[in-house]
Write a structure and sequence with these properties.
Elements (H helix, E strand, L loop, with lengths): L11 E5 L6 H11 L3 E3 L2 E3 L13 E3 L2 H9 L3 E8 L2 E6 H9 L3 E6 L1 H11 L3 E7 L3 H11 L4 H14 L8 E4 L3 H17 L2
């Protein structure tokens, strides 16, 4: 593992997916159901949405501050997910959660999740969540009513490319039935957390 100070009992749980696949809903369910988990808060340069809280949903920072953190090697991973929108996982965030005796759970983009899995190897459970089809994904993105058709088209093109990464994950979760997907995710996470 390439993260200094990691002890054998320290693990991470990663949920990644193309936008609109339902990973955030599943992660929130797991946080309610499994007390050992704590949400890992990512940094982002994107604007805060009306319902979001800084320091709870994301650490919202400027592009300049993000660049400074890259130069300081403060990130475990970072990625330009969309034009002028960067996301990253702070080393200090993982340490904060481990110091509390908890396991971080990530709701993270596909490339970031793939990077974390490579870095943490068997100390990470990486789950790729996907909708049954791109058509269903388009329907879900439209139902959110948060983005223009142009932004939805960008997300769909990105989703198509992200599908190429799924073989680098431990589990693939097809979210065709949300209740079943939640239960399957909970089973996998509990198995991972309790294995020796």
């Amino acid at each position: 593992m390439c993260f200094s100070g990691v002890r054998k009992n320290q693990r991470i749980v990663i949920f990644s997916a193309p936008s609109g696949s339902g990973k955030t809903t599943i992660v929130h369910h797991l946080l309610r159901e499994i007390p050992e988990l704590t949400f890992s808060i990512s940094c982002t340069t994107r604007p805060k949405r009306a319902y979001e809280v800084g320091g709870e949903n994301y650490y919202f920072i400027s592009i300049e501050a993000f660049g400074q953190k890259i130069r300081e090697d403060a990130f475990l991973e970072w990625e330009q997910v969309y034009p002028a929108q960067y996301y990253g996982t702070l080393r200090s965030e993982i340490k904060r959660i481990w110091d509390r005796g908890k396991t971080p759970i990530f709701d993270i983009d596909v490339v970031g999740g793939h990077k974390l899995k490579k870095r943490f190897s068997t100390a990470a459970l990486a789950v790729f969540v996907k909708s049954p089809s791109l058509l269903e994904l388009k329907t879900r993105l439209r139902a959110r009513n948060t983005e223009s058709e142009e932004r939805i088209a960008v997300r769909l093109a990105k989703a198509s490319a992200e599908m190429e990464y799924q073989s680098g994950f431990d589990r693939i979760l097809v979210n065709d039935d949300l209740g079943r997907a939640k239960q399957r995710a909970k089973t996998w996470v509990l198995e991972f957390l309790t294995k020796s």
